[in-house]
Write a structure and sequence with these properties.
Elements: H1 11-15, H2 20-33, E1 39-40, H3 52-63, H4 76-90, E2 99-102, H5 105-116, E3 122-127, H6 132-139, E4 143-148, H7 159-165, E5 170-176, H8 188-199, E6 205-209, H9 225-228, E7 236-241, E8 254-257, H10 260-271, H11 279-290, H12 294-314, E9 330-334, H13 352-361, E10 364-365, E11 377-381, H14 386-402
Parallel strand pairs: 1-10, 3-4, 3-5, 5-6, 6-7
Antiparallel strand pairs: 2-8, 7-8, 9-11
Helix pairs in contact: 3-11, 4-11, 5-6, 5-10, 7-8, 12-14
Bound molecules: pyridoxal-5'-phosphate.
Residues 44, 104-106, 130, 176, 180, 209, 211, 241, 243, 249, 254 line the site of pyridoxal-5'-phosphate.
Length: 404
């Protein structure tokens, strides 16, 4: 590798891993390129297109010359649309100086942690969680403190578990509801239970990652910490974005709201990295946030019917266990019943990484639970057509039948 070998690269690179879902998707692409028939259910993005009116607004913006640099953390029009969204959907009041827009929710999370973590600072992350939380924490020089949740508690961190995890070095608690990968949804009452603990620890701030707010099943109502615990508002940062709600992953537009000083610090960092999010994406986000919302509900109904069919099938596969997720578009499947079994190739399955490696050989690419901090599981995304989900279940059933 020439001069850029391990001694040339920074320790930051070594601390930053490739995510389980990205690794599974990449391996699937390689195998497919080699002619292997692979079903990949590792992706974390809606399989729908961006709504037509959003695409039209972006095209118009380009034609009208919105192709220049903008304010670093969002145009006034975008900030107004975000403020209106928080008011309309969450009952939260913000001013433009509370709002930060960036290239995806991921950049917002990155900015928050880069702006606040010093070596030794801890971030409490319920397991399972989206692995990026731990990786960005490490990137920023902090320490991820994984707190395993219990399946019998629906993979939700309890007030007692939170209390036990907090130390004098705790800076952040990460909350994500609906959760990637478990689909767990925190009710208003559950959020208030956690808020009671947080009230006793004024040095702990909370990131509420609401990215899957609109993928919510069985008529559940969405609740967010800033609305349920206004007394904690000065130490809550709420993160959201257009990726999952409006099928806009490629546009890279995320946003958040929180205390002014932190928003300013984040803009300072963003000004020295990517500067403003794409001007065209900002115009598209204005149209998405201010435009008709019925398509969001229609797509949610499709996700729910896929979930129902998928969970029904998964429950019939020997050795696998899962509960219907309450939100998001993933099922977190326990493969505990496969651990210790032998494959036809004579390999004993010891871990969920063994399971997903073997499934890949059987034509199915899925990220393993170790990547999300809780084993032995794998995650199945149902942001894919029903026919593909059915074929994936066929492969899982066929694989299960060969285990000894
Ligand atoms: C829980 C969670 N939060 C945030 C994001 C970031 O999404 P984006 O950067 O596309 O806005 C993702 C994407 O997969 C996610 O799963």
């Amino acid at each position: 590798m020439g001069r850029a070998d391990r001694t040339f690269l920074s320790s930051r690179v070594a601390r930053t891993r490739i995510s389980a879902s990205a690794a599974a998707a990449q391996r699937a692409r390689e195998l497919r390129a080699a002619g292997v028939d692979i079903i990949e259910l590792a992706q974390g993005e809606p399989d729908f297109n961006t709504p037509e009116h959003v695409i039209e607004a972006a095209t118009r913006a380009m034609r009208e010359g919105q192709t220049h640099y903008t304010q670093v953390d969002g145009t006034p029009a975008l900030k107004a649309a975000i403020i209106a969204k928080f008011k309309r959907e969450n009952g939260l009041d913000y001013k433009p100086e509370n709002i930060s827009a960036g290239a995806g929710g991921k950049q917002i999370l990155h900015n928050i942690l880069m702006a606040t973590l010093d070596p030794g600072d801890e971030v409490v992350i319920p397991a399972p969680s989206w692995v990026a939380y731990a990786d960005i924490t490490h990137y920023a020089g902090g320490t991820a403190v994984w707190v395993p949740t219990q399946p019998q508690n629906g993979f939700k961190i309890t007030p007692n578990e939170l209390e036990q995890a907090i130390t004098p070095r705790t800076k952040w608690l990460m909350l994500n509801s609906p959760s990637n990968p478990s689909g767990a949804v925190l009710s208003a009452a559950e959020l208030r239970g956690l808020a009671a603990v947080l009230e006793r620890h004024p040095h702990v701030w909370t990131i509420s990652d609401d990215m899957y707010e609109h993928v919510l099943f069985d008529g559940r109502k969405f609740a967010t910490l800033a609305a349920e615990a206004p007394q904690l508002a000065s130490r809550i940062f709420t993160v959201n974005g257009c990726s999952k709600t409006y099928a806009m992953t490629g546009w890279r537009l995320g946003y958040g709201a929180g205390p002014v000083e932190l928003v300013r610090a984040m803009a300072r960092l963003q000004a020295q990295s990517s500067l403003n999010p794409s001007s065209v994406s900002q115009a598209a986000a204005v149209a998405a946030l201010n435009g008709p919302q019925d398509i969001v509900r229609e797509r949610n109904a499709i996700f729910q019917s896929r979930r129902d069919a998928l969970v029904k099938r998964l429950k019939t596969v020997p050795g696998l266990a899962c509960e219907p997720p309450e939100g998001a578009f993933y099922v977190y499947v326990s493969c505990a019943g496969w651990i210790g079994k032998k494959t036809p190739q004579g390999k004993r399955l010891e871990t969920d990484a063994d399971v997903t490696t073997w499934l890949l050989e059987s034509g199915l690419a899925l990220p393993n639970g170790a990547g999300y901090g809780l084993s032995p599981y794998f995650r199945v995304s149902f942001a894919a057509e029903q026919a593909l989900l059915d074929r994936a279940c066929d492969r899982l059933a066929a694989a299960a039948a060969t285990l000894k």
